[in-house]
Amino acid sequence: MIGERSTRTGRLVPNMTLPARPAPTNAVHPPIGAVREAVARALAEDLTPVGDITSALLPPEARADAALVARSDGVLAGRLCVDEALLQVDPTITIEWRADDGDRIAAGQTLAVITGPLPGILTAERTALNFLGHLSGVATATGRFVDALAAAGEVHLKVWDTRKTTPGLRALEKAAVRAGGAQNHRGNLSEWVLLKDNHLTVLGIDEAVRQTRARWPGRLAHVECDTFAQVFAALDAGADALLLDNMTPDEVRACVAEVDRRTPAGGRRPCLVEISGGITLDTIASFAGCGADRVSTGSITNSAAVLDIGLDIDVVP
Predict the structure, then answer these.
(1) What DSSP string describes 168-215?
(2) Three-class SS of residue 35?
């Protein structure tokens, strides 16, 4: 365990021999491998090179009862990161959750109860809270966009995230987006072909889609369109998806009308329609009813405020 006390120095020092982990139980949880890796890196920042020299001053038998408490309303995400931080520091620490990722939480609500050795709890505290506050902030920001569309009466248009994520934390942040009620765009550059303006300046739409079909027949061809002419060209080329960039609601409606005009009677649309570029919490509702399929915004991951969650600790006599 990472929080093992050195017999030579008495400090809490890193040790990467880790115990088995419990399996995740919620579909919006991130992959457990990504959780383990991210938490191990974060703990190494705190515990390298000689460990938690402050908590090492405490008697090893000191114990505590603690509670994770929401200080503000929001959406919970990051539960597995808390579990993993505690487990990697000291596997004898126990945690009983009273909420799960995706739950709406209220200020003052107890989210979990933690019991175990005080040195280990204090060593893991900041890492656990950093993950929980950040990921819950992403889920909360996402939930606000989802709620804004719902309040406008939209039932078809879904919120998408982007690749504007914190380096090394993409899988965790995309899970937090799911916890907030939205859906994930591509997770990396290999999942599908997204032809943006800088690609199209060189290739052109028709040639870009043709090469995509030839080289990556199992991948989607997603074309960014700034103008109606590009929309027509992308449809003529057989694109699988359109990214309508920085268009007004009326312009989006006109593009959707052209897509629908090319849809066979009783058949499926020839492509998915995404709205992107400058979408904010103040403007997203104006796109309700436009007929598009997805609306994407990077702000839910790259600009989300941390949700205030604290750890209240009572030392056991």
Answers:
(1) T-HHHHHHHHHHTT-B---SSTTTSEEE-HHHHHHH-HHHHHHHHHHH
(2) helix
Q: Is residue 105 part of a domain?
A: yes
Domains in the chain: how many in total? 2
Q: Where are the alpha helices (DSSP H) in 204-280?
A: 205-215, 228-237, 249-261
In a domain, 268, yes or no: yes
| pLDDT digits 0-9 by tens, 69-122 | 999 999 999 999 999 999 999 999 999 999 999 999 999 999 999 999 999 999
Q: Which two tokens mark 45? A: 């920042």
pLDDT tens-place string over residues 115-139? 999 999 999 999 999 999 999 999 9
Tokens found for residue 109: 């609500």
CATH number of the domain enclosing 66: 3.90.1170.20
Q: Are residues 154 and 258 in the same domain?
A: yes
> With contact defined as beta carbons under 8 Å apart, do 175 and 29 qualify?
yes
- Residue 249 inside a domain? The answer is yes
**pLDDT confidence of residue 3:** 56
Find out whether 129 and 311 touch, Cβ atoms under 8 Å: yes
C-alpha 222/C-alpha 209 separation (Å) is 9
Task: Determine if the peptide bond prior to 49 is cis (ω within 30°).
Answer: yes
Same domain, 160 and 265: yes
Dihedral in degrees, nearest 10, Cα atoms 28, 34, 40, 43: -40
Regarding whether 285 and 158 lie in a shared domain, the answer is: yes
What's the domain range around 298?
148-302
The residue written with tokens 């109606």 in the block is 228
- Assigned token pair, 40: 């191990």
Interatomic CA distance for residues 77 and 50, integer angstroms: 31
- Considering the domain architecture, whether residues 203 and 59 belong to the same structural domain is answered as no
Eight-class DSSP state of 71: S
Active site residues: 126, 164, 196, 224, 245
Query: What φ, ψ does residue 68 adopt, rounded to 5°?
Result: -85, 120
Amino acid at 171: A
What is the rounded CA–CA span in Å between residue 17 and residue 153? 52
